Inverse folding.
């Protein structure tokens, strides 16, 4: 190609949209010797119109023609899923209980299980607290075993019960100096209504012999009756010379002369020794001795 001669197929003479209306054989519709249609062009001759016009989009270049498929026949390149390695994934799964896999538990199942565990723990703690509190309440204030005590397994140590203090009916006391038993006045608290009368005679006495396990000061209680007025006797412990009077007032507020309504009681401290002691009530000079005796007993202070 020389200067001034650009040839027949220069970009200036080429129609950029020529491919839309060219025939398949080339620009002129007739193939040249090379088969590309370039021989139909002559230098200096204007382009002629093409008689084969195609609608835009009718031809799809660069794509393969669609294959014709006959329905009812399988494609040679198609393989069913069940023929591939791994088996059929569309196969139905047996229901639980018929050999199939168990379904997974959801969040609800996990939540219910957690709540059940917490409830069991709380109940166990509550039962332990109640049982412990009951055991503490049962043992509160109770003394434990002391040295020398023998406690069998399962036994609770027992606190020694205090021995009962002596109590004596007046009718069984030793009587002296004109004192005697009687039953004429009703209301005496000794068995059978027996009491000691005749104490108004000077020198009359009733003596009680009593044993105690420990020395110390005790309350001596005396049951008596008076005819609606105050009285007193002399109290002597273990033969001491300094006997003192014991007050026997009309504490029942009986009318004067009413022995039946004058039954009451009084007390006085006495110092006793371990073992045998004697307690004597007597009518001495200066005493008001109009009194009947029905009971004597000891009490702790």
């Amino acid at each position: 190609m020389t200067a001034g001669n650009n040839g027949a197929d220069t970009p200036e003479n080429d129609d950029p949209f020529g491919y839309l209306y060219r025939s398949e054989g080339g620009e002129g519709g007739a193939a040249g010797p090379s088969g590309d249609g370039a021989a139909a062009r002559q230098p200096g001759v204007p382009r002629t119109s093409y008689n084969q016009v195609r609608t835009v989009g009718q031809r799809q270049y660069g794509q393969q023609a669609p294959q014709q498929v006959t329905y009812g026949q399988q494609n040679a390149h198609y393989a069913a899923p069940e023929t591939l390695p791994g088996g059929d994934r569309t196969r139905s799964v047996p229901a639980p209980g018929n050999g199939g896999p168990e379904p997974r538990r959801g969040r609800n199942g996990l939540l219910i299980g957690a709540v059940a565990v917490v409830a069991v723990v709380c109940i166990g703690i509550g039962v332990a607290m109640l049982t412990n509190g009951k055991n503490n309440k049962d043992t509160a204030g109770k003394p434990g075993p002391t040295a020398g005590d023998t406690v069998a397994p399962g036994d609770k140590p027992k606190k020694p019960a205090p021995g009962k203090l002596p109590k004596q009916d007046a009718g069984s006391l030793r009587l002296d100096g004109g004192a005697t038993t009687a039953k004429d006045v009703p209301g005496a608290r000794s068995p059978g209504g027996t009491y000691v009368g005749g104490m108004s005679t000077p020198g009359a006495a009733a003596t009680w012999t009593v044993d105690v396990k420990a020395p110390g000061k005790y309350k001596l209680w005396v049951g008596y009756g008076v005819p609606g007025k105050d009285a007193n006797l002399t109290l002597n412990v273990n033969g001491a010379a300094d006997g003192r009077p014991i007050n026997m007032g009309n504490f029942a507020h009986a009318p004067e002369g009413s022995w039946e309504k004058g039954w009451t009681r009084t007390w006085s401290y006495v110092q006793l020794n371990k073992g045998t002691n004697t307690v004597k009530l007597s009518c001495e000079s200066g005493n008001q001795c109009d009194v009947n005796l029905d009971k004597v007993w000891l009490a702790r202070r």
